[in-house]
Amino acid sequence: MSRLRISGIVGIANRVRQTLSLPLAPEQREALAAHVERALADIDALLTRHNASAAHLPAPSRRAYDFLKGLDVRNLPTAPAPAPAAPGHRRESIRFPGLRTYLTQVLDDVALSLVQGRFVPEAFLKLIRNTANRLNHLVDREQIAPEHLKPEPRALLGWFRYFSEEPAFMRYVAAVRRAQRLLPSPLSAQPRWRLPFLVHYRPSTLLYRLQVLPHGTRMIFDTPMLTFDENTLRQLAQRMLGRNRNQREMMAAMMGPDYKGMLADLQAAVGAVELTRGMVHDLAESFERVNREYFEGTMARPALAWSRTITGRKFGHYDFVHDRICISRTLDRPEVPAFVVDHVMHHELLHKKHGFRFRGQRQHAHTAEFRQEERKFRQYREADEFLKRLSEGSR
Fold first, then answer.
1. Alpha carbon of 324 to those of 52, 273, 352, 390: distances in Å?
2. Strands (E), the chain
3. What's the whole-model pTM score?
4. pLDDT tens column, 90-126
5. Helix 99-116 to helix 151-163 angle, to the nearest 10 degrees?
C-alpha cells in the first residue's frame, strides 16, 4: 500500500518535546501523559481504519510516532513548576496573524512605486514606524519575551524594528533600486518572469524565491542580502538562471562584515533566543564539556539549537554564515548517551574551527585535517557506531 499521510503527528511530537524540556509538576506530568495517550489512540484508530501500520507513514511522521510511542511520561521525574516568565505564554507559541501578508503588501508597494517614479519615502517610513510601534505596544502589554515568539514572527518583529529607523530604511530603498536596475537585463529574457521585478529584502529561509504575479514578478531575498554589491548581484542573477553554480563569490559576500553585521543588527533588534535545553540533554552543557576537553576552553560559543523536527540520518549541522550549530532532536532521548551528543557537537565545532575550502566550484569542509582531528574524540568509534545503528533504524 502507498504512504498514509496523517497531518499533525510531527507537530504533536515537537510540542511534547518542548514541554518535556521544562520541569514538570506532578499534575502537569499527568496532563501531558493523558495528552500523549489521546494522540496515540487517535493515530492508531486512523491506522486501523486504513488497514495500515506505522511503517506506512512518511519517514518524519513515523519517527514522530515512534518517539511518542516510546515515551513513558508517568515515570518521568517531577519538580516544582517554575513561575512563568509571562502569563500564559509558552516557548515559541505566539504568532502575529496577518503580519507577513501586510509586509508583503508594503514591500510590493515600495518596489512598484520605485519603478513607476512615484516613491514617497516619508509615507512608507511612517507605515513601517507605526507598525513597529503597534508591535512594541503589544509585546510590552502582553509581556512577550523573544523566546515566546515563533521564529517567523520573531524575525518579522526584528525587521520592522530595524527598518523603522530612517537611515536603515533608506539603505533598504537604495538596495531595491540597485537590484531593480541590475537584475532586469540578464533576467528579463526568461519568458516566465514578468516585468517589473518587485524586489523584497525580508526574512526568508531561502537564498531567493520567485513568485510570478499578474502585475510583475516578486523576488524575495533574505534581508542581509541588501548588502550585496553590483558584482554579487550579477553573480546571483546568473545563479537564478542556472548558469553559474560557483559558490565562491556568494559565500564571500555572506561571510563578509557587511552581511554579518546586518545579521547581528537584526538579531539585536528583537533579542537573541537560545533554547539549548532538551528533554534529556542540554546543548550548552555539551558545548562546555567539548570545548573544555578538546579546544582548551578557547572556542567562542556559537548559537546552539535543537532541530525543529526529528531527523533520520543527519544529526548535526554547522551554519557558517550564522555561526550556529543545530543538533537533531533524534538525539534528545534517554537511550542516547551524552557522549554521542558530545561527538556530534565536536564534529560541528571542528567545522567552525577549520572552515571550508573550494574544490573547483564546490564547497569542501571534510578535509584530511578535519578527519584526523575528528578521530581524536575519546569515544569516536563507539559514538560513530551508535549513530550508524540509529540511522539504520530510522529508515
1. 40, 12, 9, 24
2. 197-202, 208-213, 216-222, 303-306, 316-319, 324-327, 357-359, 362-364
3. 0.78
4. 778 899 999 999 999 999 999 999 999 999 999 999 9
5. 40
